[in-house]
Amino acid sequence: MNGTDLAEEPRRSGLAQRVGEALGPAGVFFRGFLEHPRMVGSIIPSSRATIERMLAPVDWDRCRLFVEYGPGVGTFCGPVLDRLRRDGELLVIDTNPLYIDYLRRTIRDSRFSAVLGSAEEVETIVRQIGHDGADYVLSGLPFSTLPDGVGPAIAAATHRVLRPGGAFLTYQFSAVARDLSARHFARVETSFVWRNVPPCLLAWAYKDGDTAPA
Length: 214
Hints:
Helices cover 38% and strands 22% of the residues. By secondary structure, it is of the alpha/beta class. A hairpin with a 6-residue loop joins strand 6 and strand 7 (200-206).
């Protein structure tokens, strides 16, 4: 790379950001998919039908902290904040700085926190924002394409961070996340949403006690 290339790189990056933002959330989401395809579960955000079905079992009255892994451009953030109690908090964690920067600039709610980091670090991040645990964790991460060992580590950390009675909510295009959840959670319920591109498997893994099943 020569000096001209170095000078052009920030210009190209800035142009890509402007083009993405001109296209709205869909443009930002698509740019994130192009940059990190293994970390984004789909080329387009989840459908309204998926959002409604995924969040339906949540007991919003008892939810003090709701965590989301891989929020993208915030497809679930608005619906979660609409349902979340006034003293609750929504924490989102993503490894893509493009998405975190976009969410920090576009969501103006005192109950919202966006952290650049890995879902494997959820326990540390939750403590850093002043909580001793989470009530619900939502994930649309593509567990089937994550690097070796990352999916199991995330599932184990999620079980540990959830309070008894909490749940790990996943929406996927394969059964990997459901099967990983079943290793740690005593009760896993599933459903399927056809009105999504592509259709996806939903799972709710409930933490009924203080320890994982043997």
